[in-house]
Design brief:
Layout (H helix, E strand, L loop, with lengths): L7 E4 L4 E4 L7 E4 L8 E4 L7 H15 L6 E6 L2 E7 L7 E4 H8 L16 H11 L3 H21 L10 E7 L2 E6 L15 H9 L3 H7 L16 H11 L1 H12 L3 H10 L7 H20 L3
Parallel strand pairs: 1-5
Antiparallel strand pairs: 2-3, 3-4, 4-6, 5-6, 7-8, 8-9
């Protein structure tokens, strides 16, 4: 039985609420008059597959049962993009990682997004320890972030900078309650930036793994490092340093079935994702999956 293709949401001009200033990509918030939630429409950078990468990444997270923002493919006045449902509602506000780290790690500077060497896994863990008052809250937060970083490794997401994760907090009767926000913003994954001839060459020469290993992630291992390790290399190190946090997430990924990925790719409308883009995505995820499965032996 053939699976239905993913829907494409046609965003109407009268739904537009405001332009979103945060981040490097052009985007705006809107609300369908029949929908209670706000949505963020994002244009992909020209010549890239950022829109389908967002959708495919979200669907992979869904299969893995990793909390994630809901993403749909979308059109606005003839332009293709992706749209993400807001999860900052019901009185909750999103506090980004840079805000949390600046309030928890004395030496942390919240400005800038990329190559921020203080954005280390250890500093993120310290921030969780100092943000959550109770041990079970700290444990849940670390396990959730471990899942997000393992997802990054699976899809080669190199954009987990300190504004691409956060906490949802709510003030109720003078007391703050909060939890780690769903994972979001996966546009910089799955080889979305490659031109077709480059993608074809990497497939032909069997160098998809090399591409994955060369990626530089947004989370650093040590503050003295000039560049962050690849998302996959970060997990290799993290599962040794913090096995109680990262092994469950890697085990979850190890159970991911290739056929589930093939189904996800088949459901993307044919004219939104080329044959080579699908083949490369399949090869990339299979490589990362194989490498992480080896960490469990």
């Amino acid at each position: 039985m053939n699976e239905p293709q993913y829907p494409v949401i046609e965003v109407q001009p009268e739904w537009v609420l405001e332009v979103e200033a945060m981040g490097s990509k052009e985007k705006f918030w809107y609300r369908d008059r029949e929908d209670k939630a706000d949505w963020l429409f994002k244009y992909p950078k020209p010549g890239t597959g950022q829109h389908w990468a967002e959708k495919v990444a979200a669907e992979i997270a869904k299969v893995l049962q990793i909390r994630h923002a809901t993403v749909e493919l979308a059109l606005f006045m003839g332009s293709r993009g992706s749209t993400t449902e807001s999860f900052a509602r019901e009185g909750r506000n999103l506090f980004h990682g840079n805000q949390i780290l600046a309030g928890s790690v004395r030496s942390y500077g919240p400005s800038g997004m990329f190559r921020h060497s203080s954005h280390t896994l250890d500093n993120i863990r310290v921030a969780m320890d100092r943000t959550f008052a109770y041990p079970h809250g700290r444990e849940r937060a670390k396990l959730a972030l471990a899942e997000y970083l393992v997802l990054d490794a699976l899809i080669a997401n190199v954009d987990r900078h300190h504004e691409n994760w956060g906490l949802l907090r709510k003030n109720a009767d003078g007391q703050w309650t909060g939890f780690v926000a769903p994972t979001f913003d996966h546009a910089s994954s799955l080889g979305r930036e490659l031109l077709e001839d480059r993608r074809e060459l990497l497939l032909k020469e069997g160098r998809v793994g090399q591409y994955v290993e060369k990626g530089r992630g947004g989370v650093f291992w040590a503050e003295a490092d000039k560049r962050g390790p690849s998302p996959l290399e970060l997990i290799r190190r993290a599962i040794k340093a913090y096995p109680d946090e990262f092994r469950p997430a890697v085990e979850k990924v190890a159970r991911f079935d290739r056929s589930a990925l093939e189904t996800i790719l088949k459901r993307v409308p044919e004219d939104w994702m080329s044959r080579l883009e699908r083949e490369f995505t399949l090869a990339l995820v299979c490589y990362s999956h194989h490498e992480m499965a080896k960490l469990l032996t």
